[in-house]
């Protein structure tokens, strides 16, 4: 067991924090929110130069060959700085899926371009119908936009909704149904669709977080066979793996943001004077801070465990779902506690930092499945748990107990003796 | 980051596993239906305790010379994890975990020779006698009076809510030896014979565990029964809590309970389908699984941090234990609510389900105070953990006087 990060990971954390404190200021976060694209092209270019876009790709594709734990460290800092950028969509959901399942041509064309900051990808997965019900939203059964074979290519037709980072995307990674009936996971194909293709129209949605999730209408969009990523009808498995990584990275963002909320709240509780005393002397305020600590600590360890398992390529459905089930609820609660400590001061939208954290929390919570969704996944996994191991000694028949239970038998004798 | 155990640690786990697997009866159930146990059960545990003691299993962190296995901190945590999985309930647990460690650190050679073997071999039962009617959360308010008289000390006063897992042999007792502010600088620790003339006991069963109250009426304690320095007892006792930080054991016990509960929900049917398919039950099981993992992680972090204390110093504030306490009542309620009218049945009834565990967990969950109430833990975390301000104790009396002056 070792609960420390490597020296390189600590350096990555320090340099990321320093960089983001100067480059990704609150002002920039607000500007991006008010802008049309949902990210800052200048900042994107700078993080490409820092190597953040190719971090986990092999060196042959312009990457640094690092693993999910390194990404987790980076995402904590991205969460802390609330950096608005298409990193998760492009590098993880797009690039890592292509790395896992794409052809050599696709990999050598796209991955170096991603690493250089020249290609942005958005994952078009969720749909208007399935978005009602989390059980459908993030599972294969929710994918019903169809792609039909047509000559030497496919025609994709339907609407994708709540697509992150579609506005700046060069390429859409579209999950479409190519086979109906049978196991829903075995009828999904992934397509690379040029965002400028005829028939593609993209409209931003107005969300709590002010991020630019979009409606993506695919109106009989024609794509060549070469745009298929991986096997026809075999797109779900590689996508699921990237989605697991993305899930853990969302937890890491909540961890980084939650840690900042804890620091802000404790600091405010210590310094804000009311009734001639710092408000942090009141136990009601202290309780909010303590629960913030509880929420954030839980995010920390469950996220690190899931990230480590992903990095080790071990099965980790349980750990990923535990991390997201805990973090989604805990982060929302952490925001609530921070708001209670800050009260009115924490609610001003022009210059207050808290609303930025709590509004983004809603996206973190819903994206890749909320607590209810992941708890249901956990329950399904628990169905396979074996009963506790029974000991092997000869049975003694001693465990039948007699009411009223309250006083042990040895007491009478001991009581007499003393 | 690395969440793997070493090969040596896995071997140790296997050894502990085999001991319990072979020595516990196949019909053993790791629960009590209440604070009490039958005489047969008590005798069974005493016998097994001695068997474990002979192998050094009760005090695995102690050196081989003093009856342990000389395990490292991390190995001890592995040991605790595996043995707790089997639901062990040692009558001598207070001596092994609470009184023994400070005895090791502060005891004289003679004290060590006299008391440690009995603990390690599983023969002696110790009570940790700290709590008093006016010293609960405010532990430094101990008022059990201790005065020096010739060649011995004399104790007068009362202890209460003393956890009593069997008939006592020794009392590990905090007593007031000096009136001083701050209060914790006038407290000393004594190793008292449980059968000393002047000591009497009263049963004080609680919803969770069996406890006693203990009365001291001019009890003579020889001088050589003082542990460590006079008036430093409060600090000596703190060493105890250092040893208690890791929850690897609690997490393992919780995992076994969850396995047991899942198996019950698999077998038991409602409306023609297993309980395991009931949405409310699934929600409850998922919550428990999350908590088992978090408590496992936090337990191992604490153990690992403790093992690195020379390098890392004191651990960062950790709220895992607090969380477990806060939610224990919710979980017990979820379970009992999921069982309809059957939830209220205790074990031993013809119609009992799940061996009455739902009822017992609900009863025990009313009792969250051992080791510090939820409220005190929050105050400690806020103050010592997060550095939030508190009113200095020296003003407490003034505040009290001011409140009394104003009235309600």
Task: Write a structural description.
The complex is a heterodimer of chains A (about 425) and B (about 400). Chain A is α+β, with helices and mostly antiparallel strands and about 425 residues long. Chain A folds into 3 domains: about 5-120, Acyl-CoA dehydrogenase/oxidase, N-terminal domain (Butyryl-Coa Dehydrogenase, subunit A, domain 1, Orthogonal Bundle), CATH 1.10.540.10; about 125-235, Butyryl-CoA Dehydrogenase, subunit A, domain 2 (Beta Barrel); about 235-380, Butyryl-CoA Dehydrogenase, subunit A, domain 3 (Up-down Bundle). Chain A has 13 helices and 10 strands. The radius of gyration of chain A is 25 Å and the shape is globular. Chain B has 3 domains: about 5-90, no CATH class; about 125-240, Butyryl-CoA Dehydrogenase, subunit A, domain 2 (Beta Barrel); about 245-385, Up-down Bundle (Butyryl-CoA Dehydrogenase, subunit A, domain 3), CATH 1.20.140. Chain B is about 45% helix and about 15% strand. Chain B is globular, with a radius of gyration of 23 Å. The chains are: A alpha+beta (about 425), B alpha+beta (about 400). At the A-B interface, helix 8, strand 10, helix 9, helix 10 and helix 12 of A face helix 1, helix 2, strand 6, helix 7 and helix 8 of B.
Looking at this protein, list some descriptive labels.
heterodimer, A: 418 residues, alpha+beta, Butyryl-Coa Dehydrogenase, subunit A, domain 1, Butyryl-CoA Dehydrogenase, subunit A, domain 2, Butyryl-CoA Dehydrogenase, subunit A, domain 3, four-stranded mixed β-sheet, four-stranded antiparallel β-sheet, 10 strands, B: 408 residues, 3 domains, 46% helix
